[in-house]
Structures are given as structure tokens and as C-alpha cells.
């Protein structure tokens, strides 16, 4: 009781604003799931350990209220100079087209910016119940610490005017002040050659009303990548990748992945496209047109890559598909809405196979409950009769995938729909078909996207949010998921919070941040 009163009495902060912030290591979470490989791991967590993450020592510290749903993963910057003092800052974007910067130690507001132009409002739900009651900022932004004077956060915001014209704009906000940078905002516009859904006169046209930016933004080699999903499969729509130069927000390139077909949304449950060390971009597309007639190089004759792993590269300033993989029954799966792109992609660290050869692998899974592992150097393309890929695992997930995996210390972690969170070891370059451990908990829709905190390869903790009547934050021992360290329900009302279904927890400097429908719940070591 005393502890609950103490926390309640803090009114959202645990330290005086005039106190200097705690000295912390330079831990940053600048993009969705921590890095461009989308591994979900923070290997510089020195405060939270399996010894102190328990209901007696760890729990809910405060709640940061905002206006609008927090569908985007919060981001975190350590030791940012603001007013001449270093501060740890949490960035929160909402569906009300608002971006907030909070002091991550005192929990005080630093700045708040609306991205709505005069005379415009956020979009309504457009006859889709996935995002309600408004659509503003859905995709996780991305941060560039080297942009401008203080660094920049790149954000895509949706809005409409009084005449029901819809807009998407790419913003670049100064990390310290929230001011627009680089000539921002930039209106998202695009067209490409094609005669597919929504095309006019041989051109595929990006109609902003038909799209939302659901997948997280990606920043790679000075380019900001945006990728586009539909509203509940409401036609007409196709599959867009639209890129901008980070320093100027000038258009860098446009690629439509179903230009002569339809659908192929890129949403991946909020996961973002991944980038490897060579700058290649990897993503999964949803149900949509795949041309089973192939050219002499094994690529779809009409350039339609629905329901597939896709690898993109630059060729003479043009964004092009350089490799891909799709299942032998891809057309049947798309016809049943059994898309691969309901789950996210992850690029594994280099591994050696049983012969000692170094492999560069990517992993993904979707509604068909199969874990697909592709060699990024030779992905497998399409065959009418079989899947010519590096590895595929049937029956191990226990359910369809509407989340994304995480990686830590030679192990892949998956939490599928109506299944347990499972750990799959990687040995001799292959993922084990049998999990080494699993949780006692079963995760309802949409499953769970785990996050890892560790100090190097030690003190590994798997964090997972459960979507239920009220949200549940779980912490498990990374070496044995049967060992639950913490469960927010065990503390009763003290640690209660409301979950937002596709959110992934963020761990930084001894705190865990969880997005909710009305703000961010902050967990940490109790005072």
C-alpha cells in the first residue's frame, strides 16, 4: 500500500526536474525492433537482470498520457544535449498526428508537436476496424542522430481536409525542439509504369486515401524508406515502396511490386523493412498478384511480387528487385488471404553451416504457420512444384504469425497466434525444428513480438506483451522460457495497464516502455 501511494504521489515523475539526470550508457533505440536487421535486442542493458526483475523489485513506475493511440513503437535517445544538459529522451507518436518528447528519467514533457496543417484533421477509420477511431501516425518513426544540429526523427502522418482529400506527409523533426527540418514536410506522391489496380493510362497511381503507412520506416545509407499497406484489403490498391533522401527529403526512388496486378500490401504487423550491411532492403509482401510466368532469369514476367520475400537494391539510381522467394502454392495462399506478409522479417547474423560455409539468412513466417529461412545470396525464386529455399519448418509455431520474431545469442524467438512463445536454437547454420523451451502462457491474437534485454550475452531477458482484457507484461529468462521472472498481473492493480495489440515493448537504461491506447506505461525498478 505504501509503495502504491508513493508512486501515485509522484504525479508522473520520480525526480525533481532540477536534478541532473542519472549518468547512463549511450543506449539508443532509433528504429523499430532496435536495429535495421530487426533483431529486437538491446545488448547494453546493465540495470535490469534476472535477479531484480521480479514483482517485489520491479513494476509500474508511471504513465505518460498522450492524445491518440500509440500504435507506433516509442523510440529512445540517450544523452541528448538540450539546453546545454544531457537528457535521456523518449519519443512517442500517436494516431492524433502528435509527436511527444519526454524526459525518460524525470518523465517531464520536453516538447509536443502537432503534424496537422491548418484546416485538416486526422483520417477516419475508412470502413476498417484495424485502426480506430482515427488514423494519423501509425508507423514507427526512425531517428538519425547525425541530421541537422541535434538529430532528426522522421515521421509519416496521414490527414484529410474538409473536402475529404487525403494526404500523407513525411516530416523531419529536430530531436531537441520538435521543429521541422530539411524543408519538411514532404507530400508523399508516386506513380510508376503499370496497368494494375487503380492505374490510369498505363501508370500505377498512389492514391493516398487507399493507403496507410503501417510498416515501420527504415533509414539506410542516407535514404528513408516508406512502405504502404491497405485499409483492411479494400481495393483498389497495389504494393508501394517510396524512398526519400534523408538530408533534403527529395524523392529518391519509387518501386511498385504489383504494378500490373493488385494488392501485395506491405504491413508486416508493424515491422519494418530490413537492411543488410551492403544496403540491400528486405521485406515481405502480403496476399496479392504473383506472375507465375517467369522470364529467362526466373523473375515474374509482369513484375508482380505479391505474397513473397523480396530483396531490393539500387541500380543506376533506380530501386529494383534483385532477388525474391515465394512458395510453390503462392497463388492458392493469396486466394485464401493466407499471406506471408502478416508476419515480420528478421535478418540473422552470419552463421556457418555444417560445412563451414558462411550463410547470410533471413527468416519470416505468416498465416500458413511455416517458418521460411532464405539464403539472402540466393533466395530461391519460384518453382511450380517445390520450394527451393535454404530451410523451412512446418508445425513448430503452433499458430499463424501476426507478429515478428526476435534474435539473441544463437536463438530465434517466435510467439504466434494462440501459441506459446518459443525458443528455437540455431546450430550448424540451421534453425531447430523443435523449441528448446517455451512459455506456459499462450498468447491470444495477435500473438506477441518479443524484445530482448541483455548485457552482452549475459543476463538475457525476453520481454513480451500479452493482448488480453487488460495488457500483461511478461519477462522470461532468455535461456529457459519456462522460467517466468515477472508478470504484471501478479502485482494486482499496482501494475495494471491497457494493451495495444501490435505493440512491442522498448527496453532502455533500466526501464521498459509499453505503448497503450492513451499513452505509454513505464516499468522499472521500484523506488
List keywords for this structure.
527 residues, mainly beta, five-stranded mixed beta sheet, five-stranded antiparallel beta sheet, 2 helices, disordered N terminus
Task: List the topology elements.
Blueprint: H1 2-9, E1 41-42, E2 58-65, E3 75-82, E4 85-93, E5 98-103, E6 109-114, E7 120-121, E8 142-144, E9 152-161, E10 166-174, E11 186-187, E12 191-193, E13 203-205, E14 218-220, E15 223-227, E16 240-245, E17 251-256, E18 274-275, E19 281-284, E20 309-315, E21 318-325, H2 330-335, E22 345-347, E23 351-352, E24 358-359, E25 361-365, E26 370-375, E27 391-394, E28 406-408, E29 411-415, E30 419-427, E31 430-431, E32 437-443, E33 451-455, E34 458-466, E35 472-477, E36 480-487, E37 506-508, E38 511-515, E39 519-525
Parallel strand pairs: 1-33
Antiparallel strand pairs: 2-39, 3-4, 4-5, 5-6, 7-9, 8-9, 9-10, 10-11, 12-13, 14-15, 15-16, 16-17, 18-19, 19-20, 20-21, 22-25, 23-24, 25-26, 26-27, 28-29, 29-30, 30-31, 30-32, 33-34, 34-35, 35-36, 37-38, 38-39
